[in-house]
Structure formats: C-alpha cells, structure tokens
What does this fold into?
Amino acid sequence: MKNGRLSDFMRRDGTRTVLSSIVSILIGLVVGAIVVFVVGLTSDNLTLTSAWEGIRLIFGGLFSTGRDSAGALTFGFNSTNIGNMLFRATPLIMTGLSVAVAYKTGLFNIGAPGQYLMGTMASLMLALAIPSEVVPAGIVWIIAFLGGILAGALWGAIPGLLKALLNINEVIACIMTNWIAANVVTWAFDVSNFKNLVESTKSSYIYKTTFNGVETPKMGLDILFPNSQVNGGILIAALIAVLMYILMNKTTLGYELKACGSNRHAARYAGISDRRNIVLSMAIAGGLSGAGAALYYLAGNTEFFWNTYTSLPATGFNGIPVALLAANNPIGVVFTGMFMSMLDIAGTQLTSLTAYNEYITDVIIAVIVYLSAFSLVIKMLISGRRKKVRAAQPGSAAQADASGETGSGAGPMPPAGADTGKGGGEA
It folds into this structure.
C-alpha cells in the first residue's frame, strides 16, 4: 500500500518538476566545484588546499564564519550572511514572480529591468519628496511602495498594449522599453534635487530614504539576524507570492489568464477577452517588478546609482532564472529566489576568504539556467527511469503481462461453461 502511494506521488507532474529542478541545482553545483578544482590545479596562486576550500564555500558559503587563528575555514550559524541573503532575495523573488506570472499567460517578460527602474524612480522620489515632518513616515512608506507598484505596472502595460493591439512581439517591445526606462530614469534624477550632495564622493548617488526618516520596518528580523540588512521586505515578498498563487490557481481571473496563455484564439472563442488579459498580465508583471525595486530601496540601507543608461539592473534579468528554476510556480519562486541569493553570498565569501573570483558562482547560475530550460527533458528522463525500475520489479504488471503472453499455457483456466469470446461470436 505504501509503495502504491509512493508510486502515485512520484507520478505527479509537480513531483517530477521539483525533482528536475533539484537535479539542475545539483549538476550546477557539481560543475561549479569542478571549475574551482580545475582553476586550483592550473593557477600558480592556488593550491589543492585552496581548491578544497573553494568547493566547501560553494556548498556552504552561507554558513561560513571566517577563519580561525590557525587560518582554517570555520562554519556555523552566521546571522549576518543569512540576514543579508534574505534581504537580497526580496527583489529576486519579486522579479521572479513578474516573469512567472507573465509566462503563465504565454508572455515572456524580459522587460523586468525597465519596470524595476521605473519602480525605483517612483518609490525613491515619493519617499524623499513627501516631508515626513508633515506626513507620518509609515504613511510615506506606503505611498512610496504603492507608487513603485503603479509605475512598474504602467510601464509593463506598454508592451502588453503593443502585443494585444498590434501583435508586436513582447520581447522586442520589452527590450525597447528597458532602454527607454534607463534613459528616462537617468534624466529624471539628473534634473532632480535628490542627488546625494552631503557626501561629496557620492555625487552620482541618490539619498537613502532614511534621509527623510523612511525605511522598511524590521518586524523583529533584526533580532533573529543581527548585524545584517534584513527587514520585513522578505515577509511582504513571501505574502505577495502566496497571493499570486491564489490569484493564478483559485480565481476566475487566474483561469482566464492561463487560458489565454494556453491558446489565445480558443480563449477568445470561449468568450474570454484575450486582449484585456494580455495587457492585464503584463501590468501585473510590471507591478511586481516595481514592487521589488520599492522593497529594495525603501529598506533605508541601500543607495541608487542614478547614472544607469550604460547598463540595466541585473536584478531584473536574474528574475528569469528564478522563475525558470521554480517552473513558474509562485510558491517555488520564494525558494529559488533565496537559493540564487545564497549563491550570491557564497560568491562574496569565495572572494573575501580565498584567491578565487566571485564570478565562479555566475558559472553555476548559468549552468542551472541552461538545465532549467531543459527541464522537460530532465522530467522525461526521470519518468523513463522510473518506468524501467517498475518494469524490473518482481511481480510487476509489466512482468505479469509478459508471462501471460510468453508462458506455456499454464495460466489460470476460465470456469467451465464460461464464455471466452473465442468462436462464440456472431457468424
């Protein structure tokens, strides 16, 4: 009975999806370990001991506590690393949700960086422009957070409108709006009064929101993870992920969005407004990216470098592997976002404690992303392996069928007088 339940559980599509993601992660980590080992062997500045230390940091860098008096690596509960991991995971979760929600509607939202920038601009300007002496800081925070969501949603709706009304590919439209957003944000901050003039070495930075007394509440997380940047933003991101899961799986709107993603023309034939849902999907995706930017910069401990026209924020693009690894499941995005953030922390530890470069973790992420793109193949391999295992088990249905077909006729005989269906048919 237990074997039957386990077999049913393993046959579920969700189980195979999780297993394929785990396989992708493990292969990525192993490839990273191999890269560290090869670099350690071929570099004049590194030794086999350094390679072993690098491998240990890749797998357990989150729990690294530095080196002891003898110079050996030490591991244990590191409140700073864990807290910083949760803080850095917050915007990744939100941009991952942005990509995942759009994908459920059959759209590839590569415009998360531009939506993230617009959310950054709106939230920072509102947080710094509304005087906290007149309006309570908590109210200012809420206004700035909602403003970031609205700005991202409006910017995300633009590719949605182009797709719905003119059938312009959303990838092309998103790429164009990304760079337009970068230049708009650069110009807006360049002519504003929000540039940091207090610290002369930071003339290209915007004031932290604490300059106006606005910051995200810690919600007790600073007690659990002292000496870190963590705040209540991670809890808000997790709550939004749950709400997105409910929206996509338990509501009529979510059904319509997924119906449009499965077949836009069939959805229209069924009476669902495909154009409205395409625009709405991209607006929701943009709002999620804008919310990620707001949660990151309203923390009060981060600064925004306004001269961004030469590059786009990596957080927006990193939402793509977060969503892929989670198979576009909103709940899974929370965990994959934290995993990607953990790799970021591991890269930092790798740089500070060894002679390795932190970009080795980018190799790991790249491998995981490629494998996530082939998740269907991995799921098929897992399913094929399980079928072989079941076929090889003694007394399995496959073997029973085989014995019935190739046996010597010693199988159970039908009762006397029973109609076997042989020779008794209609003439």
Remarks:
- Residues 402-427 have pLDDT under 50 and may be disordered.
- Residues 18 and 326 are 8 Å apart (CA to CA).
- The longest helix spans residues 13-42.
- The beta strands are 64-67, 73-75, 205-206, 304-305.
